[in-house]
TrEMBL record:
Transmembrane regions: 6-24, 31-48, 83-107
Keyword Magnesium in annotation: no
PANTHER family per record: STAGE V SPORULATION PROTEIN AC-RELATED, STAGE V SPORULATION PROTEIN AEB
Name of the protein in its database record: SpoVA/SpoVAEb family sporulation membrane protein
Keyword terms, alphabetized: Membrane, Transmembrane, Transmembrane helix
Claim: Manganese is one of the keywords in the record: no
Source organism (scientific name): Bariatricus massiliensis
Length: 118
């Protein structure tokens, strides 16, 4: 049942994003920023965790999960370090994911031959 819940919740998120891309004039970059900010807002109002308990990777893998990770990092850093935590918390919380994305992207570029769109 966990897989089914992750599938339909993740599919719903992706379908809503596709509708935004198809029906509005929003550029993909703005939609991605909207997802990250939405994840942070859902974490702020304590809705993200119950959804994540229900849907698992269906909600945490899309950019909503990244936004929530940034929010949690900032929240913890502010509790520990005060105002300066606003600037360092998100970096600390997301450093591993960002580093992994950079490393795997670089390794992929070494293995596969990238082609430019014409």
């Amino acid at each position: 049942m966990d897989y089914l819940n992750a599938f339909w919740v993740g599919g719903l998120v992706c379908a809503l994003v596709q509708i935004l891309l198809d029906r509005t004039k929003m550029m993909p970059g703005r939609v991605m920023v909207l997802l990250v900010v939405s994840g942070a807002i859902l974490g702020f109002i304590h809705i993200f965790k119950p959804i994540q308990d229900f849907a698992g990777a269906g909600i945490s893998v899309p950019l909503l999960g990244f936004g929530n990770t940034l929010w949690k990092g900032v929240k913890e850093a502010v509790e520990q370090n005060g105002f300066i935590g606003i600037f360092m918390g998100g970096f600390k919380a997301s450093a591993v994911g960002i580093s992994a994305a950079l490393i795997f992207g670089y390794l992929s570029s070494l293995i596969f031959e990238p082609k430019m769109k014409k």
